[in-house]
Amino acid sequence: MPTDSTSLENPALAAEAKVARLAVTVFPLLVLAAGIAGFVAPGVFKPLAPSVPYLLGVIMFCMGLTLTPPDFASVARRPWAVLLGIVAHYVIMPGAGWAIAVLLHLPPELAVGVILVGCAPSGTASNVMAFLAKGDVALSVAVASVSTLIAPLVTPALTLLLAGSFLHIDAGGMVLDILKTVLLPVVAGLLARLFLRNAVARILPALPWASAVVISLIVAVVVAGSASQLVAAGGIVFLAVVLHNGFGLGLGYLAGKVGRLDGRARRALAFEVGMQNSGLAATLANAHFSPLAALPSAVFSVWHNISGAVVAAWLARKPLQD
């Protein structure tokens, strides 16, 4: 989720870095444990399926609470870099999802699930990964914010274009769902940050952890819904997710290089392209298709946090290149 770019860029806040490193270690383990729990005890989590949109709304509200006016001002200061990040995100990941679905001959429901992950906005932990990788956190926050705000229009349109040949896509219904579960909670969180600044400041350190817990619960519910098919489909889904995420990270960095951005900006784009809001994808897949279609989102939730942490640690040890 976008974090306060001012605090992240201040090298004096060593405690912030320590918390961020702890987060990227604990988050994947928490999500993985939730997935295992959903698989082992589907009867416990499956009845919670109707609550998934509300859980996503909580995550998006937390995201809105982290946003500040300077985050949006950075869009005006560097429109080219932000535009490049948005275009790269919504071209590379949807296109890669479609290509992987076709090349692996995925069944229709899994194909739509992979494509839907690719059409989602940036992931909620991308800013933390950019920070750990010594990337441009302000750019990361700007791209994540804008990609989320335009998701109600872009995500359904791209899903219809790329996944319409696999299953019927209710693009209009998706627009309404994303407005209710993403845009409205984000705006509500942003307004709360503006008008209840002192109260929000006291709870800001807990927001990433709260989001991680809620994301984990969504993963448990999604896995519980498709537990009976996970054994048969798990291998091919994992392969699709690893390829998808890998292409996103690599091509996101390459897009920054082609766009002649500096080294810190390239690192930021790697995570803004390669990490997806898999919670939104899972919610839409559950609502519009089936629990099986949501399975790629659940696997992506675990994997992109693991791969993101590894890549961030690797980049942090490499010298920056202009």
What would your notes on this structure say?
The protein has helices at residues 5-9, 14-40, 42-45, 52-66, 69-77, 79-103, 108-119, 126-132, 137-149, 151-163, 171-195, 197-203, 207-225, 227-258, 263-274, 278-288, 291-316. It has 322 residues and is mainly α. It has a single domain (28-317), classed as Na+/H+ antiporter like fold. The radius of gyration is 18 Å and the shape is globular. Mean pLDDT is 85; it is low at 1-9.
How would you summarize what this structure contains?
The protein is mainly alpha-helical. Helices cover 81% and strands 0% of the residues.
What is the topology?
Layout: H1 5-9, H2 14-40, H3 42-45, H4 52-66, H5 69-77, H6 79-103, H7 108-119, H8 126-132, H9 137-149, H10 151-163, H11 171-195, H12 197-203, H13 207-225, H14 227-258, H15 263-274, H16 278-288, H17 291-316
Domain count = 1
Please state the CA-atom Rg, rounded to the nearest Å.
Answer: 18 Å
Form type: globular
Q: What do the pLDDT scores average to?
A: 85
Query: Strand fraction band?
Result: under 5%
DSSP helical segment count: 17
Q: Kindly report how far apart the N and C termini lie.
A: 27 Å
CATH class: Mainly Alpha
Q: Would you identify the CATH architecture?
A: Up-down Bundle
Under CATH, the topology can be stated as Na+/H+ antiporter like fold
Percent of residues in helices: over 70%
Give the helices and strands as they follow along the chain: HHHHHHHHHHHHHHHHH
Low-pLDDT segments, ≥5 res: 1-9
Main structural class: mainly alpha
Largest sheet: none
What is the subunit organization of this protein?
single chain
Number of strands: 0
Organism: Arthrobacter woluwensis
Transmembrane segments: 22-45, 51-68, 80-104, 110-132, 139-166, 178-196, 203-224, 230-256
Main location: membrane
Pfam family, one: SBF
